[in-house]
Design a protein that fits this description.
The chain is an alpha/beta fold. The chain is built from 9 helices and 14 strands. The strands form 2 sheets. A 7-stranded mixed β-sheet has the order 6-5-4-3-2-1-14. A 7-stranded mixed β-sheet has the order 7-8-9-10-11-12-13. Helix 4 links the parallel strand 5 and strand 6. Bound molecules: D-malate and manganese (II) ion.
């Protein structure tokens, strides 16, 4: 199986357009220790011909341009993108769909919650269901996507999308609001969890034994944005568990057997984004890789 890391940053990208945190400043200055990153999305394929996009970020067009495997390859109009699977309805997961509107046929997979959110917004009528059929995901029931890949979705602790907060919704959302994916080619297990508010025992068991884990790396520590003065929100308030700390991802997953551990959806304020920081060194020492866009994993 091939896994392309199209984008590795959280919503807003790195550097985020309006951010001058120390991390972002390094990126604005072109410091090689802080390469720019687009918003999180991956593409997977077993045969390398048909590809499944996991989440459609606002940077999708640039991501396609940067990854030859996703270029049109035959006839007058073509794209290797045959399926898109959404792990939620966040802006950074769905707005790239609008870049896939020029007549191409593909299948759109999401939970009923996510598909309802999309179809409640008339702008997504630019992707009519006759051309872009919606397939509702049932949690824990495997489904096939193009290119010889099987996907199983599972519920994870999360949050309703930002734009649905306060609309009479419970902040954490109903089951199916935020999901993780187990992606397999029959021989290998890839776990993709770009947003996760808490790591419980069920999730730990699900992740154990994975060949590759791509996991929520939004913040280094829960109060990071408050300490910086960048925002009044904690990571928890945003629906993200942090990398560090006793309840953080590195500690909570330390004892599991996982082939490769990669952080994805990394926020512009997270010091681990920058090469040479003590936070990066700590992540590396804990067995975690902080990727850049365009990396490809072969399993
Ligand atoms: C998040 O991951 O918390 C959201 O993408 C935030 C946002 O919509 O900007
Ligand atoms: Mn996000």
């Amino acid at each position: 199986m091939r896994i392309l890391l199209l984008g590795t940053a959280a919503g807003g990208g790195f550097p985020q357009w309006n951010c001058r945190a120390p991390t972002s400043l390094k990126a604005w200055q072109g410091d090689p220790a802080a390469p720019h990153r687009t918003q999180a999305s991956i593409a997977v394929s077993r045969d390398g011909m048909a590809w499944t996009l996991i989440n459609a970020s606002p940077d999708l067009r640039a991501q396609i341009m940067a990854n030859r495997a996703l270029w049109p390859a035959e006839g007058l109009r073509h794209s290797p993108i045959a399926d898109v699977v959404l792990t939620g309805g966040e802006i950074d997961f769905i707005t790239g769909l609008l870049s896939l509107r020029e007549g191409h046929q593909f299948t759109l997979h999401g939970t009923a919650e996510t598909l309802d959110t999309i179809d409640a917004n008339p702008i997504f009528g630019a992707l009519p269901a006759e051309r872009v059929p919606r397939r509702a995901i049932t949690l824990d029931v495997p489904f096939e996507v193009a290119g010889g890949v099987t996907v199983t979705a599972f519920d994870v602790a999360g949050k309703v999308p930002l734009y649905l907060e306060g609309a009479g919704n419970d902040l954490t959302g109903r089951k199916g609001t935020t999901i993780g994916l187990e992606i397999t080619d029959g021989g290998h297990r890839v776990l993709f969890v770009p947003g996760c508010a808490a790591i419980d025992e069920a999730l730990r068991q699900r992740l154990d034994g994975a060949d590759l884990l791509l996991f929520d790396g939004t913040l280094w520590q829960d109060d990071e944005m408050i300490v910086l003065g960048a925002s009044g929100k904690t990571g928890q308030r945003m629906g993200h568990v942090s990398m560090a700390g006793p309840q953080g991802t590195m500690a909570r997953l330390a004892d599991l057997s996982i082939g490769q551990r990669i952080f994805i959806h990394i926020n512009t304020t997270n010091p681990a984004l920058v090469d040479g920081t003590s936070e990066r060194a700590a992540a590396t020492a804990a067995g975690w890789h902080v990727p850049v866009d365009g990396e490809e994993i072969h399993l």
